[in-house]
Design a protein that fits this description.
Structural class: mainly alpha
Order of helices and strands: EHHHHHEEHEEEHEHHHHHHE
Shape: elongated
Number of helices: 13
Strand content: 5-15%
Strand order of the largest sheet: 1-8
Radius of gyration: 21 Å
Length: 299
Amino acid sequence: DPSLERSIPGVDAMDDDDSVASSALSAHAPSDLFELFNVDDDASSEDIKKKYKTLQKLVHPDVAGDEASAMAALLNEALPLLLDKSFRVAYVTARKQLRRGGYGGFDGNPKSAWAGDPRADAIFVDECSCIGCTLCATQAPATFEVEQTHGRARVTTQWADSDDDLDEAIAMCPVSCIHIVPRRELALLEFTMTSCEREDIAIIRRRLSGNMASPSAENDPFDRAAVYLKMRNRASAKRAKEGIANSLETNRELAAHAGAIASAYLALPLQVRQKGWPSAGKTGGGGGEKNSGEITLKA
């Protein structure tokens, strides 16, 4: 049913060799300064300086090309901050908030498993809209479950029931919170879903009856994913400096900070990413080895 299909706003599949975001949907990328330098939060100043020198040699534009200019600027801005002990103490707290807010920690891997033949589409439940009726999990129990923390439906294994049972399960949903999404968007949608705040089911029912205003777009996983992609999509030396200069007190500042780091990384040539951040390639795509098609975002 085409009416069930949904996609992240602004994502337009196309072959664009110049797109910074060719792997933004599926690639792991550093999202904070400790990940950027690949050091622990208690690393010594000597270790940080050593990492800086190694990475800066690798990403110097004369060596890695113009695509590396944002990363070179980012490292220059980040070094004095990480050498400042008072900054690092405050940054550890900001880093925790960054992850709680869903702006860091994306590894490019979907949380649901996959069953059956490969398909271009996947099933995704918007848990912020789910009222916990359990109908889908009853009809197609191998695919859906009702998670215990919030009492909402969730896909655990893609396409694990028959097509007939899945069609019936999706059709039975009284609030149309089950969507068919492009498979390559699944990992990011499931990631952003984890940081969306679930309202009380009673409040959702009141909204459905027209007694309350619409919920905040911040808790729409599709909108959150779109914002996340935009933050990752454009790298520049100016944006890198601005992202690092943020006070990191608001969600917008945290998102810009994480996005500046990730976009500078994703702009690097693949071989530079693999050499400078070898561990990233082992956690969900590592800069695009597993990406399923290039993407760009409409302005």
